[in-house]
Write a structure and sequence with these properties.
Distance between the termini: 48 Å
CATH class: Mainly Alpha
Shape: globular
CATH architecture: Up-down Bundle
Helix content: over 70%
Number of helices: 8
Order of helices and strands: HHHHHHHH
Number of domains: 1
Radius of gyration: 16 Å
Number of strands: 0
Largest sheet: none
CATH topology: Vanadium-containing Chloroperoxidase, domain 1
Structural class: mainly alpha
Strand content: under 5%
Length: about 170
């Protein structure tokens, strides 16, 4: 099976096979509100004397979101799953830009979580779990494929890792 065939198979498993009203409501009314913690934790750090980490996390998250939308999506031109495949189930308040690759929602989540993970492991692990749940949610809701999400994670990790190396060489 090709990578794209596997991508489609996993997408339909997450988007349709496991779909049920309980999980729909859990994603929409529990997970999506929980995702606000990815932004609220850095803001909390801002007021608790960890200004550098807060600004670093917020910068990485929102820069990666911008990078994905302004540069990467127009380069790759890969349409959303509901354009690529038939019978895609979409739920939730997700933004419907024409392109899906990479998942900028996932890039935002990991861009916010990774800097904190590198400097505050315990809270960082919690935020990474939330970031992975963001990735699951955008697939489950029908707006991204697993490859979109995986690319979002990889772009985020590469950017934050390189940024980490640059920052550590300055100190």
């Amino acid at each position: 099976m090709s990578l794209f065939g596997l991508n489609e198979k996993i997408f339909f498993f997450l988007n349709q096979k496991i779909a049920n009203p309980f999980l729909d409501n859990f994603v929409l009314f529990v997970l999506i509100p929980l995702f606000s913690l990815l932004v609220l934790v850095p803001i909390y750090f801002l007021f608790r004397g960890k200004k550098f980490l807060a600004i670093y996390s917020l910068f990485c998250g929102f820069f990666l979101y911008w990078l994905g939308h302004a540069i990467l999506k127009p380069i790759f031109h890969i349409p959303r799953p509901f354009v690529l495949f038939e019978n895609v189930r979409t739920i939730g308040p997700w933004h419907e830009s024409p392109y899906s690759f990479p998942s900028t929602t996932t890039m935002l989540a990991f861009g916010l979580a990774l800097p904190i993970f590198f400097h505050q492991r315990k809270i960082g692990i919690f935020l990474l779990i939330l970031a992975f749940l963001v990735g699951f949610s955008v697939i489950y809701c029908g707006f991204h494929t697993p490859l979109d999400v995986l690319a979002g994670i990889l772009f985020s990790f590469l950017f934050v890792f390189i940024f980490e190396k640059i920052l550590s060489s300055k100190t």
